[in-house]
Amino acid sequence: MSLYNLTAHALHEKLKAREITAVALTESVYARIEAVEPHVKGYLTLTKDIALEQARAADAGFQKGNDMPPLAGIPIAIKDVICTKGVRTTCASKILSNFVPPYDATVMTKLHQQGVVMLGKTNMDEFAMGSSTENSAYQITHNPWNLGTIPGGSSGGSAAVVSADAAICSLGSDTGGSIRQPAALCGVVGMKPTYGRVSRYGLVAFASSLDQIGPFSKDVTDCALLLNAICGSDAMDSTSVDMPVPDFTQSLINDAKGLKIGVPKEYFAQGLEAEVADRVHAAIAVLEQLGATVEEISLPHTEYAIATYYIIAPAEASANLARYDGVRYGYRTENPADLLNMYKKTRSEGFGPEVKRRIMLGTFALSAGYQDAYYRKAQKVRTLIKSDFDAAFQKVDVIATPTSPTPAFKIGERTADALQMYLSDVMTTPASHAGLPGISVPCGFVESGLPVGLQFLAAPFAEEKLLRAAYTFEQNTEHHRQKPDLSSFLVEN
Predict the structure, then answer these.
(1) Which of 212, 307, 334, 411 is the most buried if burial means most Cβ atoms within 10 Å?
(2) Which position among 154, 163, 199, 251 bears the catalytic label?
(3) Is there a catalytic annotation at residue 173?
C-alpha cells in the first residue's frame, strides 16, 4: 500500500519508528496529487517548497528522538478561506485573486506548532457560498467517486482531496453544512465542532454567527487528532469559548451500550431519497444491535431551518463583504470614472453571481422597513430551532440523521435552480443555527456507487459523545475503508 493511502495515526507510528521519513511521505502525496489533480481539481494553490521544508524539519525532530506531536510530518490541505501567511488566500473569488495574507489564522499557528506539512490551498464555493463547489471563480472540483458529479460544498476541494488520497487530512469550514455535506458526498469523515470551540481568527468571514473551522479525515481517529490540534480559546476571537479542551482521542471507545440515540422524524420526510434513507436506517440498526437505545424524537421547527438560514447568513454576509471595495486590498477595476464608480465596478466585476445574489438578499433583509419582518423574525425562529435541540438532548445523548438528502448530483444539474441547490443543506443547517457539533461518517453506498453519510449531532461542547458514537459505528463496519476507483486514468507510481 502506498504511503498516501494511510491514515495520519498509522503514518505517525511509521515516522516514530523511523520506517519512513516525512520527506518521503510528502513526495508520495505530491506524486499522487500530480496523478489525480488534472481530473479531480481539488487544489487552487500548491506549496511544495514550503511543504518539503516543513517535512525536513519534522524529520530532524524524529531523528533526534524527540517526542513528536501526532501530526508532525503529516501532509494536510487547507481550505482557501483560511489565512496562510505568505501564501495566496483567494476564497475562490476573483476579488481576492492577488491577496497574500500578512498573518496566519490561529488554526494555522496551532498546526505549525504541531509540525504539520501544508500541501496547499483547496478549491471551494466562492466565499463559502454554495453546496457544490461549482461557484468557484477558478474551476469546478469533481467528486472522486464519479467525476461527472459534484463533491459537495462549500468545502468540496478539502473533501475531494482526502477522498482521492491527495491529502492525508484537510481543514474546511462549516456555516450551514459545508464540512458535513461534502464529507458525506465524498465518503470521508467531516466534523463541525461546537460554535466557539475553534478560533475563527483568520477565517475569512461569511456569516460570523455560524462559521466554524473543522477537519476532514479518512477515519474518526484522525478527526480526533485534528480536533486536539485546532481547538481552544483565543484572545484574537471574542466568540471563542474559554473552556478546557479534552483529549478527544480518549473518546474513541468502541462501545454503544447505554448510548441513547434520537432519530428525528422530520429528517426522514419528503425530499429524502429512498436509498439514502435505507442506508441510514441500516446504520442506526448496527448501533442498536451493539447495545444502543434508539428512539424516535421530534424537532418540530426543522422545516423552517432553510428559510431562516437564507435570511440570517446572507444578512451577515452583506455586512462582512462590504469591506471588499477595491480600496485597501484585493481586486480593483481599471480606469474608474470616480470613487463611486470604482466601488460599483470593482464589486460587480470581482464577485460571482451567487455571492451577488446573497449580498442582495442580505441587504434587503436588513433594509429599513424589512428588518423586523425578516431578519428579526429569523432570529426568533433560530431560537425556537435551538430550543427543539435543547429539549431533545434532555432525553438522548446523540441525534442520528442522514447528512444529505441525496447522494452527489451531476455537475450542472442544479445551477439554474437556486432553491433546489439550497435544499442540499436541509439536513445540516438546523444544527448550525443551534451552534451544535456534528460529524458525518460514511455509512454505505447507493446502487450507482456513490457514498452516503450518517450524521451525528450532540449538545454544545459534547464532541466526546459524537466521537464515541461515530467511532463505534466505524469500528463495526467497513464503509470507511472503501476507496474510489481512480484506476481508469491513473498509472500507479
Answers:
(1) 212
(2) 154
(3) no
- Give, in order, the Cα–Cα distances in Å from 99 to each of 45, 93, 126, 331, 344: 13, 10, 14, 8, 20
The H-assigned helical ranges of 323-460 are 339-350, 353-366, 377-392, 418-422, 429-433
Say how far apart CA 55 and CA 23 lie, in whole Å. 5
Q: In what order do the strands lie in the sheet with 75-79?
A: 43-46, 117-122, 75-79, 169-174, 212-217, 189-192, 438-445, 451-457, 398-402, 260-264, 293-297
- Dmax (CA) for the chain in angstroms is 71
67-112: pLDDT as tens digits: 999 999 999 999 999 999 999 999 999 999 999 999 999 999 999 9
What CATH number is attached to the domain comprising 247? 3.90.1300.10
Place of cell 451567487: 354
When divided into structural domains, the chain yields a total of: 1
With respect to residue 7, please indicate whether it lies within any of the assigned structural domains.
Answer: yes
User: Going by DSSP bridges, is the β-strand pair 451-457/43-46 parallel, antiparallel, or unpaired?
Assistant: unpaired
Task: Kindly state whether residue 313 falls inside one of the protein's structural domains.
Answer: no
- Does residue 37 lie in a domain region? yes
178 annotated active-site: yes
Residues written for the chain: 493
Give the pLDDT mean for 158-168. 98
Burial 344-379 (b: 16+ CB within 10 A, else e): bbbbeebbbebbeebbebbbbbbeeeeeeebbeebe
- For cell 481576492, the residue is 96
Long-range pairs for 306-310: beta carbons < 8 A, 24 or more residues apart: 306/422, 306/423, 306/425, 306/426, 306/429, 307/378, 307/381, 308/378, 308/381, 308/382, 308/385, 308/429, 308/433, 309/176, 309/210, 309/425, 309/429, 309/432, 309/433, 310/361, 310/422
CA–CA separation, 165 and 6 (whole Å): 8
Distance of alpha carbon 157 from alpha carbon 160, whole angstroms: 5
Catalytic residue among 79, 110, 121, 218: 79
Query: Which 3 state secondary structure label does DSSP give 294?
Result: strand
Q: Which residues pair with 190 in a beta bridge?
A: 216, 440
By residue range, what is the domain housing residue 154?
3-258
Which position among 132, 178, 240, 318 bears the catalytic label? 178
Convert the pLDDT of each residue in 170-225 to its tens digit.
Answer: 999 999 999 999 999 999 999 999 999 999 999 999 999 999 999 999 999 999 99
The answer to whether residue 154 is catalytic is yes
* pTM of the predicted model as reported, rounded to 2 decimal places: 0.97
- Tens digits of per-residue pLDDT, 418-476? 878 888 899 999 999 999 999 999 999 999 999 999 999 999 999 999 999 999 999 99
